[in-house]
Amino acid sequence: MENALKDWDAAVDFFTGADLWYALGRGTVKILLIIIISYVIIKVGNRVISQFFARRRQGPFSITERREATLKKLIINALTYIVYFTAFIMILETFTLDIGALLAGAGIAGLAIGFGAQNLVRDIISGFFIIFEDQFSVGDYIFASGVEGIVEEVGIRTCKIKGFTGEVHILPNGNVTQVTNYSIHNSFAIVDVSIAYEENIEKAERVIAELLEELPDRYPEMITVPELLGVQNLAASEVVIRIMAEVEPMEHFSMSRAIRKEVKNRLDMEGIEIPFPRLVMYSRHEEETAHEPSKTGG
Questions:
Q1: Is the pLDDT of residue 275 over 90?
Q2: Residue (of 250, 233, 251) closest to 242 by Cα position
Q3: Which of 66, 211, 268, 281 has a CA between 20 and 30 Å from the CA of residue 82?
Q4: Could you state, in order of their start, the residue ranges of all structural domains in the chain?
Q5: Which of 73-77, 178-182, 220-224, 281-285 has the lowest mean pLDDT?
Q6: CA distance 140 to 255
Q7: What pLDDT is recorded for position 106?
Q8: What are the b/e assignments for 108-138, b being 16+ CB within 10 Å?
Q9: Is 156:91 a contact under the CB 8 Å cutoff?
Q10: Is the CB of residue 203 less than 8 Å from the CB of residue 230?
Q11: What is the CATH topology of the domain spanning 126-181?
């Protein structure tokens, strides 16, 4: 009974003693300082990185905006991970844990996991070459691994591609074996215009050619005057004339629609008919008249 009372008194003295609360207060303050300093480092680092790339945009060794967006986001993410990891280690030290033994054990475990995580290593290596070779960057429109859309993010392990309908596809970098990038060079808008057989094709070509000369002034996205290639096909009920225009990257969709609208309006103004489905009907009386022999004789 006396031993129990002594243990109880020792426990009360421990929890009510100044040493315990001093250590807890000191540890809490240290943890808060670590968190605050980490937050400040990340904020300041983000601003410094943004200013660095803004200066690079104007210097002699300037980089493209698409390259800038990719590298800036990648460096910011790397800085965030490093700061968070360092802060986590410092917080563990606050709890008087043996960090050396913990890191040694983590290194051995990481080595063992690395042998089984070959796909992860492949993704990281592929991501490095995607960024280093500038295969595609943030904002590019690409087709890769059966997915088509705009690149939202390029990371060390994965890349995010946003489709036209809003879905975001997350692809491991190791699965990106073949990429079609539509945003590196200028695009070509190809438009086929149908003209009725009854119309004068030479007149239609002349009217369209005059219109094409006016389009670059209306649409700055067009690099040069669209080219009238001529008759592309002789269909069942129409003559197909092809137009090709060099436009800025990824503007071929909108410029194709604009060319179709402009051509339709100009052809209507000139009275040139665009073919439409027709149904020709013959009455029975007309057929009998056509087959009836002539009664006028000599």
A1: no
A2: 233
A3: 66
A4: 8-116, 126-181, 187-269
A5: 281-285
A6: 18
A7: 58
A8: eeeeeeeeeeeeeeebbebbeebbeebbbbb
A9: no
A10: no
A11: SH3 type barrels. (2.30.30)
Looking at 198-247, list the stretches that DSSP marks H as alpha helix, in order from N- to C-terminal side. Answer: 201-218
Q: What is the largest distance, in Å, between two alpha-carbon atoms of the chain? A: 153
CATH code assigned to 8-116:
1.10.287.1260
The tokens describing 126, both together, are 């592929």
Alpha carbon dihedral 232, 219, 163, 65, in 10-degree steps, equals: 120
**Residue 129: what are its φ and ψ, rounded to 5°?**
-70, -30
Cβ pair 262, 211 in contact under 8 A: yes
Is residue 120 pLDDT above 90, yes or no? no
Q: What is the chain's mean pLDDT, rounded?
A: 78
CB neighbours of 67 closer than 8 A, spacing ≥ 6?
134, 137
Q: Which amino acid is at 178?
A: Q
CA dihedral of 55, 139, 167, 77, whole degrees rounded to 10 = -30
Neighbours of 198 (CB within 10 A): 7
Which residue type does 254 have? S
Q: Check whether 298 has a pLDDT greater than 80.
A: no
For the chain, report the end-to-end CA distance as a whole number of angstroms.
152
Residues 6+ apart with CB under 8 A from 173: 123, 124, 126, 127, 130, 155, 156, 157, 158, 159
Band the pLDDT of 138: cuts 50, 70, 90: confident
pLDDT of residue 297: 45
* Topology, domain 187-269: Alpha-Beta Plaits (3.30.70)
